[in-house]
């Protein structure tokens, strides 16, 4: 090839570089302009409607409270694909980051579950067959721009809708927060708890199933915090302490209960009030069961642990057991008329109670009030005399004395100076 021809070829090669570079630039620009995973943030606040109560039933007031620590989802309306997840904070506020390639019609919803919170594993579902969660959702947002954040405002679960379900969830969250204060940790993912409630399900009672770790709530118990927390107290005892409750029908005024049943039911009633005390709720010593109907009042029954307000005593009665435990934690400054005033000198023994429940009763092998006393006294817990006064005041006289050494009746001398007559039919 001569020199002139070579120059021609080189010149042609140089001429080809510019179109090639232009082509590559165009392809790059096209790639940049294609829809990509443009992130945006959906934010807002979820609340639920609550119905406060006192010893006479519902006050008639409706207030809104934050839905705390619950799962939040951003959902594609057409496909029902979950595009992003998060959870509410202590104030019900949320921020969920979403990756969306093209404009879609989307909405945000809050669910009655805490799966996104690594410390909790709670769910509120409608029934054991359908197993559906409750939710409160915002309106659909048509063709949302993937590059624009989505302010969702404040969304509220109303009473008569999902309000009851979120109240149940909130009560369960409070119960586990109190457990955290006692144990220094949350139950963890392996110890899930499901609470079932549906208005119109035909369920007339409330109970805890320790086999499946689930609480079954009556149709009208959606706002009965005392009852919800009571059943959650059964879960705490069964899962993390020693529970020997034989179950069955029981009445708060029955003073001839199985001692194991009385202890378990008394513990659950105590736990209900202790949770409310821990969260500084008004009149935590009052246990209230309503009919669930709308409007003020609608009381089924109520009683007070302080006192207690019913004439009961002894370790074979659940209310007496609950009142005895309550006297170890109650605080006089929280009591106010028209409720019973604190009648003892002790308070704040929550951790000591839990130590006996979780660490000592399993070793003793018995879950009764007498075993609780044995654990308390043997572990060198402080203020034993004050505790003894509380027990004795409620008809539980377990302290050792010189009359009955060895906890047996046989060596006890008679305190009578004359023979005791045999009972006659007229006694």
How much β-strand is present in the residues?
A: 15-25%
The overall strand count is 17
| Average pLDDT score | 85
Order of helices and strands: HEEEEEEEEEEEEHEEEHHEEHHHH
Tell me about the largest β-sheet.
5 strands, antiparallel
SS class: alpha+beta
Low-confidence stretches: 1-38, 412-427
Helical content, roughly? Answer: 25-40%
Distance between the termini: 139 Å
List keywords for this structure.
427 residues, disordered C terminus, five-stranded antiparallel sheet, alpha+beta, single chain, disordered N terminus
Offer a concise description of the structure.
The chain is an alpha+beta fold.
Describe this structure in words.
With 427 residues, the chain is of the alpha+beta class. The protein contains 8 helices and 17 strands. The protein has helices at residues 3-33, 163-183, 225-240, 259-278, 318-326, 350-364, 369-378, 384-393; strands spanning 38-50, 53-54, 57-58, 63-66, 71-76, 82-87, 93-100, 104-111, 122-125, 135-137, 141-144, 150-157, 193-196, 207-209, 214-216, 286-290, 299-304. The strands form 5 sheets. Strands 5, 6, 8, 10 and 11 form a 5-stranded antiparallel sheet that branches. Strands 1, 4, 7 and 12 form a 4-stranded mixed sheet that branches. Strands 9-13-15-14 form a 4-stranded mixed sheet, covered by helices on one side. Helix 3 (225-240) crosses helix 4 (259-278).
Per-chain topology:
Layout: H1 3-33, E1 38-50, E2 53-54, E3 57-58, E4 63-66, E5 71-76, E6 82-87, E7 93-100, E8 104-111, E9 122-125, E10 135-137, E11 141-144, E12 150-157, H2 163-183, E13 193-196, E14 207-209, E15 214-216, H3 225-240, H4 259-278, E16 286-290, E17 299-304, H5 318-326, H6 350-364, H7 369-378, H8 384-393
Parallel strand pairs: 1-12, 9-13, 13-15
Antiparallel strand pairs: 1-4, 1-7, 2-3, 5-6, 5-8, 8-10, 8-11, 14-15, 16-17
